[in-house]
Specification:
With about 200 residues, this protein is α/β, with parallel strands linked by helices. Helices cover about 40% and strands about 15% of the residues. The protein contains 7 helices and 5 strands, in the order αββαβααββααα.
Length: about 200
């Protein structure tokens, strides 16, 4: 099955592309924190097994694979858009912006993009959108792991500043505990004020 995850990369390679980047984001749904994207270019002989959609992995397994991806990737770029910008432009535009930033942070630059989802990003590069791509393309799966671990680590860091919200547990997602904390304490500087579940308490 794992060889199937390389089919999009193989097709791009056959078309003549060499620096093929997979792109995914983490954090579209939370009430707090940034949206984080990763762009990952893997070598064609990427030796790491077990890379798949980050949502299917335990936190421990994600951390292990994150380290291995960093060890073997040709290049990794990260893009982060903060809650102020999310509120200003909306979460879809912020997600696409974070993806664009992640691509610009790659070195070498890619010649082809494989993007999780249905929206292209505003860059003048050949790109293919792949719905549920994090379970279909090894490069996107790797990007989903890097984006998720990067964002989780940021939210654990924010927990130190705002412990009353429990960010280390739910990472800003709208859990019952998180919603009750907003009701009790109001919102923090990293909450998304345009989101239902926060804006009612402004």
């Amino acid at each position: 099955m794992e060889s199937d995850l390389r089919s999009f990369e193989k097709k791009a390679f056959e078309k003549g592309f060499r620096e093929i980047a997979g792109i995914d984001e983490a954090g579209r749904g939370p009430l707090a924190g940034p949206v984080v994207s990763a762009a990952v270019i893997l070598p064609f002989s990427f030796p790491v097994s077990g890379v798949t959609d980050s949502k299917k992995l335990t936190p421990k397994k994600r951390e292990e694979l994150y380290e291995k991806i960093y060890d073997h990737a040709v290049s990794i770029g990260i893009g982060i858009v903060d809650p102020v910008e999310i509120d200003r432009m909306n979460i879809l535009k912020a997600s696409l912006l974070s993806m664009s930033i992640s691509v610009k942070n790659l070195n070498p630059q890619p010649d082809c993009l494989l993007i999780d989802g249905t929206f292209q990003i505003p860059l003048d590069l050949p790109q293919e959108t792949i719905p549920k791509g994090d379970g279909l393309s090894i490069s996107i799966a790797a990007a989903s792991i890097v984006a998720k671990v990067t964002r989780d680590r940021l939210m654990i860091r924010y927990h130190e500043d705002y412990p009353q919200f429990g960010f280390s547990k739910h990472k800003g997602y709208p859990t019952k505990i998180h919603k009750e904390a907003i009701k009790k304490y109001g919102y923090s500087p990293i909450h998304r004020r345009s989101f239902r579940g926060v804006k009612e308490y402004l």
